[in-house]
What does this fold into?
Amino acid sequence: MQPAVYGTDGMVVSGHPLATAAGWSVLTEGGSAADAVVAAAAVLTVALPQAVSIGGDGVALVYDAAQGRVHALNATGYAPEASSLETLSRQDLLVGPRSATVPGLVAGWGTLHERFGRLPWRRLLEPSVRAAARGVPTSRAFASTLVEYRAQLEAEPSLSALFLPGGAPAPEGAIIRQEALAATLDEITLKGAGAYYSGRIAQALAAVIRHRGGLLTEQDLATFKPEWVEPIATRFRGHTVHAVPPNSYGILLLLQLKVLEELGAEFEAAPLGSAERLKHLIGAAKAAFQASQHRIADPRFSAVPTSELLNRPLVPDAAPKTATDRGGTAVVSVIDRHGNGVTLVQSVFTLFGSFVHDPATGILLNNRMRGFSTDPHSPNVLAGGKRPAHTLSPAMILKDGRIRFLLGTPGGPGQTITLAQVISNRLVHEMPITQAIGEPRWSLDLDGNILVEHGIDRPALGALGIDTTLAASTSPFFGSAEAIEVLANGVFCGAADFRREALVLGA
It folds into this structure.
């Protein structure tokens, strides 16, 4: 794991070194935290093409130091207006041209910059244009992903041309250039975020979707707007933990922490690394998922009883059995010298999203329609113009009205499970933030089975009736937590997870 980084003039942590460097460069030029987040986030869409794309979505938490207030931005897209249970099957929602919602990410960047930016928009996207045009070396992790998804990539000619040069997966160190994407990013750089939602880019996206039998139209793109929403929060160990409200899964994190807080001394007394402590964490996750997972929906269509859920007593249960998807997600967190902070989580949902790639624009589209239910009685049932339930779940923690932590992680629904472990490690066991992130974790696989890393006592868990499977730390289900902590004296302390390619820079 990268050692903790300390600084007072600002700090950036993201899921790729090139993105972190882009964000840090913006900070050193006097940019705001929002400016740096946009710059880093744009590079992530180039450097981690399996996980994030300008064809995806994002959600963010923003701390305004002058106001001492947290804001939440929902830049997740709607289902095409023509969507309905009559026109789409469950299989349509999983992958392919009918699985994409309106991509909200670029509009989200523009909204962040409009409200909290300082530097010119054009400056922010220049690093991403260069990265796409000049190319980014293939990491070992990405190279292994290309091998794993070779068959699916071969079925999409433009993706095959990019990532399977000569018919074979690009090896570690191979330079991947995305010239069409560079041209699209350059157009957005020159014309602003709105250029994505009208004109050449929107026409090209709508055309490729229409040609392949999808429902997304130019009108769907033209009418999309991100939304500033009020964050939700709960108390934990003398701190206030903020999350993005539904349609985000953020409430699952708050409910897990609520259970652990109610356990009090019983949880605190369980030794670190013990089976008893892990049983409490697993039980808290099951209680949270059972109480609210199937109630998470777009509140514009179905009221979500957020306050009721956060105030209802929850009892820890046995091991969860909740199916999850292997997510394609990346995170960037920034704090500037004035103490303003932003955490943005962005994603195409499962790895490579819909597997629909537009060769004219270089855009890979998401498969967020997968997040809908096809049960007509579900609050999260599919409907045109509706946002699906969304796994993206950043966290921001305050104490006495001042920012203490910015946190995020990839990992699908496992995001909240990872963050609950990191937060409890730091605030209950008072570990340094690097150790809190590095400690062995548990998570869930695609079938809801419990995965554990090396260092967790599996026989002891078995004696408690909890069956587990050992998995490598590189498994996507364990996520890759990234954090910035503000120490009591105002110094920033950043930590990047060893499980992926994350990097933190500060001074």
Remarks:
- The chain has a mean pLDDT of 93.
